[in-house]
Amino acid sequence: MTRAMELELLDSKKKMVSGTYLCNAWYVAAWSDNLADGQLLSRTILKEPIVLFRKSDGHIAALQDRCPHRFAPLHMGKVVGGDRVQCPYHGLEFDSSGACVLNPHGTKNIPPRARVRSYPVTEKHKAIWIWMGEQPPDLAKVPDFSVLDNVPEMHATKRDRITIRANYELIIDNLLDLSHTSYLHDGILGNSDTVESEITVEQDGDDVIVGRYARNATAPGLFAILMPSTPERVDKFTRMRWMAPSNLRLLTGICAPGAVPESGTGYHAIHMLTPESDKTTHYFFTAVRFNVLTADDRLNAQIQDKISTTRRFAFEEQDAPVIEAQQEMIDAAATAVDPIIHSCRAEAIGDARAGGMAGRISV
Ligand code: FES
Ligand SMILES: [Fe+2]
User: Among the atoms of ligand 1, which is closest to the Cα of residue 67?
Assistant: First the structure.
């Protein structure tokens, strides 16, 4: 292969997976209820090993998870005095700013280099967010997942997480193009009736919203259970909002054919992607039902469980194998991997009507 061919190959791969990160942004490190008092939680984010813990005042600290003495992972140590991490190896202690505040040995001298990086952290929408860049953190930039706030637990599904062995950009591609639901999630999240959909693409500030509206379709399995008596034919709507770099919020549901979506029911589907490395991604997800039409508590508990387990199955057993295989194909490709683009209706781009639902149900 000539040098020019090599460069063309690399360039084509970068079109699929850029291999870069936006650092000055908030990423989900964990769900809030997954970090208990006294716990040291290790998590690699944007290739940086990080340890998280709750301080005695309830606020969360995030430190580089590598002791500067002999590089033992701090998460193997313990929280001491409520606010410090003690290294498991020789006992140096670090406060939440990352400074070494105790050397139990000899002269007890603390060298200036005895410190680790600390990262800004905030808690919002039931998640722990970490700011990975060097610029000052901007709390106004925490993505809006307020649909998770103040909802009855009964109508919110499990706050879950999986790891996908692929670059996060491939997962964004998966989530913004829900045409795959008719094939990969046939019968569960999509079906042959939902292949034909009106597609809209909008830009809202820095967000991009892709809508799909399938009219007069049979309700896919997970949607059919949401109504007390589901009509034989429904309109199925989806609106996926991408909040760059890697957080997405989907509004999806069904209504009677020709009715307004507000008369129907469905759920807000939350997809939070946090790059672990160039080729692995933490995938946090949950869902919150809206316009709940089923009144019975026992039934609602069953629906809650069904949405939790079905979505995990869809992502882990159906999406992940294909996305991971895509990553492998791209890595192994010896010839250019320029993706083809389907033709699409020109009027879909910039169409803000989105089947009449834009601005009426919050997306
Ligand atoms: S490696 Fe941490 S104190 Fe020695
Ligand atoms: Fe999917």
Answer: 2
CA of 284 to the centre of ligand 2 (A): 14
Q: For the chain, which domains are there? A: 21-141 (2.102.10.10), 146-356 (3.90.380.10)
d(CA 251, CA 211): 9
The pTM is what?
0.93
Contact 166, 239 (CB under 8 A): no
Q: Are 293 and 174 in contact (CB under 8 A)?
A: no
What residue owns the CA closest to ligand 1's atom 1? 70
Ligand 1 mean position, distance from CA 63 (Å): 15
CA of 326 relative to ligand 2 center, distance in Å? 14
Beta bridge partners of 183: none
Written as tens digits, the pLDDT of the chain (363 aa) is 899 999 999 999 888 888 899 999 999 999 999 999 999 999 999 999 999 999 999 999 999 999 999 999 999 999 999 999 999 999 999 999 999 999 999 999 999 999 999 999 999 999 999 999 999 999 999 999 999 999 999 999 999 999 999 999 999 999 999 999 999 999 999 999 999 999 999 999 999 999 999 999 999 999 999 998 889 999 999 999 999 999 999 999 999 999 999 999 999 999 999 999 999 999 999 999 999 999 999 999 999 999 999 999 999 999 999 999 999 999 999 999 988 877 665 555 554 444 444 445 555
How many angstroms separate the most distant Cα atoms in the chain? 79
Going by alpha carbons, the residue nearest to atom 4 of ligand 1 is 90
